[in-house]
Amino acid sequence: MTASGLEPFATWIEDLIRRRGYDIDSPRGGGKSRLADEAGVHRAAITRLLQRQSMPDLETTRRLAHVLDVPVRDMLIRSGRLTEDDLPLPRTPEAGSAAVPAERRLTLEEAAAGLGVPADQREMFIRVAGQFLPPEPARRHAPMARD
């Protein structure tokens, strides 16, 4: 990531943060701290990004994507870490095709197979890729079990 690549990403994410209701402009607005707390990241990472000093690491990027309700794919592409060719979207099947229907998301197993991940590496691929998916709605708000 070059310094010139940081500027467009920081500008984009700054606008996104504002649109999501975080007051990052006034010193006492608390938006940076609130965003950092909700994402579970250090406030300094948010400050460094907004001051165009450094790009957030992969884990911070992933956490920010979830809090800001943006696909991790978009964050990685906009940050310049990966390209659209690196992260292609699943193709929409043509009529009569046996491919996965467009209204259903691929499973990680299907993605691994479709990407040609060797069988002996698929379990690792699924574990790693699964970390980038948002929690399932049923688990996101499920009450904690009691003894």
End-to-end C-alpha gap: 49 Å
Class from helix and strand fractions? mainly alpha
Strand content is under 5%
Q: How much helix is in the residues?
A: 40-55%
Number of domains: 2
**CATH topology title of the largest domain:** 434 Repressor (Amino-terminal Domain)
Defining key terms:
147 residues, 0% strand, Cro/C1-type_HTH, elongated, mainly alpha, 2 domains, 434 Repressor (Amino-terminal Domain), DNA binding, Lambda_DNA-bd_dom_sf, Helix-turn-helix transcriptional regulator, single chain
Structural account:
14% of the residues are buried. The chain is mainly alpha-helical and 147 residues long. 49% of the residues lie in helices and 0% in strands. Helix 2 packs across helix 3 and helix 2 crosses helix 4. The longest helix has 17 residues. The protein folds into 2 domains: 88 residues, 434 Repressor (Amino-terminal Domain) (Orthogonal Bundle), CATH 1.10.260; 36 residues, no CATH class. It is built from 8 helices and no strands. GO terms for molecular function: DNA binding. InterPro entries: Cro/C1-type_HTH, Lambda_DNA-bd_dom_sf. This is Helix-turn-helix transcriptional regulator.
